[in-house]
Structure formats: C-alpha cells, structure tokens
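INFO worker-7 received task bundle
INFO bundle size: 2
INFO processing item 0
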Amino acid sequence: MGTCLFYFIGIGNAQHYPQDKGLLSAAMLEQHSQEAIALILASVQNTQ
C-alpha cells in the first residue's frame, strides 16, 4: 500500500517540478530507484 501511495503522490508532485531539471535523467531515475528500494526495505524490516 505504501509503495502505491508513494508513486501516486509522486506523480502529482512531479507536475510541479521544473522541466529543465531533467526529471527522467539517469541520475534522477537512479535516485528514485534507491528511494523506492529503501522504502520497501524499511517496511519489510519493521514487520519482522
């Protein structure tokens, strides 16, 4: 559930992001991937 909300809210926030910052650049995609993985790992570790 948290992962779905993370992406749903992110889409709304992305609309306000300056277009000249390269939202889909390799660096931004890597950072986003790391944040998503950290979110999932934190939730898995908290349930054990």
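INFO item 0 finished
INFO processing item 1
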Amino acid sequence: MRTSQACTDRRGQTISAGANARILVIPDWLTHDVATDDVARLKAAEGTVMRILEIDTHGYVWFGTDNLGRWFCLRPEEVEVVA
C-alpha cells in the first residue's frame, strides 16, 4: 500500500491507504466500454465498505484485495471514509 498524495472525501475527511471507505457510486466513466459481467460486479460494490489499497499520483482511490491487487479506482468525491 502506498499513498502518493493527500486527498479528501466528499465530506472533507482525509482519505488514506488502509482506511475503509463506502463506495457511494460506481460512475459511468468507470463502466464505459466494460463487459456486462464486469459492470454488474462493479455495480454490486456500490454502497459497500471496502479497504483502500492506495491513492495514486493522480488522486484516484484504488480498491481491490491484497492478494489480487488493484481492481478499480474512484475519484475522492465518489467515496466516503468510514470509521
């Protein structure tokens, strides 16, 4: 895990690698030109809480699993840090 830059969620809370965040929306920009099965899998993550793997140098928040690596990313305003 690494954090390349500091960013904040839609409520202004600091987002950091290792923190948990609620996926508020799976946006169209992410699912555009993605296979139907993969879109369904992504949409199933909407509303769930996942651990943040990293924040890349562009400020995107990455989710996935430690053993499988990065799965998808969202913009900071599309997530909400939870305790």
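INFO item 1 finished
INFO post-check item 1: Helices lie at 28-31, 36-44.
INFO post-check item 1: The longest strand covers residues 49-55.
INFO worker-7 idle
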